[in-house]
Design goal:
It contains 14 helices and 12 strands. By secondary structure, it is of the alpha/beta class.
Length: about 375
């Protein structure tokens, strides 16, 4: 097992960081510890229990993700929403104020809009660091962003955001799901905490639900203390699947980056497409920010058709790209955010977030690029 992650590259960390070495067999893979009962007292004087987020398989994921995100500690959850909700509830109390980016993932928006006000937390929304700064109040405790965002791929200047947070003693948090730790590491830029829906790229095979928080030991300890009460842990078998997925993360993300860039350029030049959202394109409004803080631009592309009424026809004509929810797997998926990820939002909330009825989001997989382009060429042959 790697003991000093600072001396190794990301591909090496994906494979070796955090592995539980079995002294009895010397196996290359971490064993799966299915127990829900562990001896106590024990030499470590630790009360080991799955709901305490401290079993061997959970700790493997925690160590690996902390190494990849260059944080001090991590805690793995049973879903991305479990990670997000636990983090927010661990750090916000009645009467306090939090600022959120106005085009977050729809599930996050729903949680924030419906649960936090009910608990007495005051909310503000913004699109960039200047708007976040304008929204500050004496009772502001937290600023929460996604960069790149879901599904419009907006990017926030993370170093500037971190500096704002440090000046005012405010916690800065990012959902880094779309970027992955391969393309972007917010903690070295000064961001306090990183959250992932590990269901997506970290696992990468569309067969595990998980989430993770990476931060300082102090922040992770606070989150874990709340998590023990809420019970959103990940079981040993799912941890083992997630660990296996993480081993190929760097290779997969490289292919996702390449394919998404190829598809984005193709769509941007197609006469049936009116707009493409991909920060790797020079014409994207946040391209300069993305180029400054990202090593790659990710596997997510969204676009709008010139004729919004042709959405159904496009979906029905795709043969390889699958109309489906979720993202980040090896297969290419496409969805209509207004009907799926953001459908529980009101029309006004979608308008504020820039989610039109004709917007399509593509999670670009790792298939051969020419096959993806051929599928979209046929599907975009509009009447």
């Amino acid at each position: 097992m790697i003991t000093d992650p600072h001396t190794h590259g990301l591909s090496t960390l994906c494979i070796h960081a955090g592995t539980h070495l079995d002294e009895a067999t010397g196996g290359a893979c971490s064993p799966i510890f299915t127990s829900t009962a562990y001896a106590f007292p024990n030499p470590a004087n630790a009360n080991i229990y799955p709901r305490y987020f401290n079993t061997p398989n959970q700790q493997v994921i925690n160590r690996k993700l902390a190494a990849l995100e260059k944080g001090e500690a991590a805690v793995v959850f049973g879903s991305g929403m479990a990670a997000i909700s636990t983090f927010l509830l661990a750090h916000l109390k009645p009467g306090e104020h939090a600022i959120f980016q106005n085009d977050l993932y729809g599930g996050s928006m729903r949680l924030i809009s419906s649960e936090l006000p009910r608990l007495g937390v005051q909310l503000s929304w913004g699109a960039n660091v200047a708007e976040f700064a304008a929204a500050l109040r004496p009772e502001t405790r937290l600023i929460y962003v996604e960069s790149p965002s879901n599904p419009l791929r907006h990017c926030v200047d993370l170093a500037e955001l971190a500096a704002l947070g440090k000046r005012h003693g405010i916690l800065t948090v990012i959902d880094n799901t779309f970027a992955t730790p391969i393309n972007q590491n917010p903690i070295p830029l000064g961001i306090d905490a990183v959250i992932h829906s590990a269901t997506k790229y970290l696992n990468g095979h569309s067969d595990v639900n998980a989430g993770v928080v990476v931060a300082s030991t102090e922040i992770v300890s606070r989150v874990t203390a709340s998590a023990v009460n809420f019970g959103g842990m990940l079981d040993a078998h799912a941890c083992a699947q997630l660990e296996r997925g993480l081993k190929t993360l760097a290779l997969r993300v490289q292919r996702h980056n390449e394919n998404a860039a190829t598809l984005a350029r193709f769509l941007a030049a197609h006469p049936a497409v009116s707009k493409v959202n991909y920060p790797g394109l020079p014409e994207h409004p946040d391209h300069a920010i993305a180029a400054r803080q990202m090593r790659g631009f990710g596997g997510m592309v969204s676009f709008e058709l010139c004729q919004a009424g042709q959405v159904e026809r496009l979906l029905s004509r795709l043969r390889m790209v699958m109309p489906a929810l979720s993202l980040g797997g090896v297969e290419s998926l496409i969805c209509v955010p207004s009907r799926s990820t953001h459908r529980t939002m009101t029309a006004a909330e979608r308008q504020r977030a820039g989610i039109s009825d004709g917007l399509l989001r593509v999670s670009v997989g790792i298939e051969d690029a020419q096959d993806l382009l051929a599928d979209f060429t046929d599907a975009l042959a509009m009447e």
